[in-house]
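Changelog-linked ticket: PMV example.
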Amino acid sequence: MRAGGTGRATAVAYPNIALVKYWGKRDEELVLPVTGSLSMTLDIFPTTTRVAVCPDAAGDSVTVNERPVDGVTGERVRRFLELVRNLTGRRERAVVTSANRVPTGAGLASSAAGFAALAAAAAAAYGLPADGRALSRLARRGSGSACRSVFGGFVQWHAGRGRGRTGDLSSYAEPVVTAGTFDPVLVVAIVDTGPKKVASREAMRQTMRSSPLYRAWARTSGTDLDRMRDGLAQGDLATIGEIAEHNALGMHAAMLAARPAIRYLSAASLAVLDQVAGLRTDGVPAFATFDAGPNAAVLCRREDARQVANALTDIGDVQAVHLAGTGPGIAVGGGGQ
Ligand code: PMV
């Protein structure tokens, strides 16, 4: 193990929204998913994270948006730093300073951008040699969906095979080929900025353990993934959107069939689904997807984005809309910020 690294590094990462979802782990410790997934990296809500290795510090300190972070989130970051230290053979603690403008805990994947940026900054600061694939595997350990935010555009996370080291090495994300002309927009409709009712980790466990629909969803997801890749290669928005909406609703259906039921979708989420169906009837291709929360992301053509945003804003419960195009992968720099 080498001791090296710049001692300090800053990384910027963007959130991603899955069009074919990740829901369920076959290995909790290594964060190995049951199914592959595919996402679009956004060009809004970046997270910027600086890691500075401090030889004199007694413990790690973590600050997000200028506030000290303790509790569960602080513990997750510390455990992640411990993983990086174990991989490098170093013991020094670190100061982590992070800033984001993602509404946290509302199913908008703040953890994806957060752990992708942390992985890249910590690897550089501690001197862990990591190419894109290795960085993706590392980010995966912080939060599954973070492994996809390492790359820009459309990204597939391979479930990989097996457990242990075989599983770890085979489960990573990589960019997906798309038709050059394909340039869609995701209109993010915020209906609730509050924290999640159930953490996704626990909700996944509960779905796998008790939902009779989980296996069926996981099986269909494999087909969805193959068809989604074909749709992206052809730049076929209608196919891509139809699969994305179907896959997300199937995931939520599996959760609703869990015992007790996990219900992230709210009345406002269903109003978004109605509005999107209405747009399609009017000839505007628009398709909704939902993560572990009630907020929606609506996929549409760039030329329709304004009309879609206006239609969503018309829904009383929609508090804000944000237009997102495809964003870049992580960028790593020196220690300055
Ligand atoms: O990365 P996690 O553990 O927060 O899980 C995220 C799961 C979903 O956002 C619901 C789906 C996905 O593929 O991003």
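Closing comment: Example verified and attached. The pocket of PMV is lined by residues 18, 21-23, 37, 109, 111-112, 143-145, 200-201, 291-292 (CB under 6 Å). Residues 214-234 form the longest helix (21 residues).
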